[in-house]
Amino acid sequence: MLERMRRNLSDVHEIQSALAESNFERAAEVAEFSLGLSSLGPHNARQAPYMPPEMQHLGMEMHSASSRVARTAQEADAMKALGPSPG
Question: Domain residue spans in the chain?
C-alpha cells in the first residue's frame, strides 16, 4: 500500500508538470488513467479490507477528484485545472 501511495504522489507531480508545460493531453491522461475512476481495478478490491471506511471514502474522493481534473485539463486551462474543485 505504501508503494501505491508513493506512486500516487508521483502521478500528482507528473500532472502538475504537464499542466505547467501546457501539455493538457498528458495531464488528462495521467489524471484519469493513473489516479482517476478509470484506474480502479483489482488492486482496490484487494486493499479495501485493510482500510477503515473513512480511508476508503477518502480514496474514492481522490479518484473522483482526479477524474474531474482530467476533464478540466481537456479544456486546456491550467489555472482552472489547478484551482479548487466546485463543491
Answer: 2-80
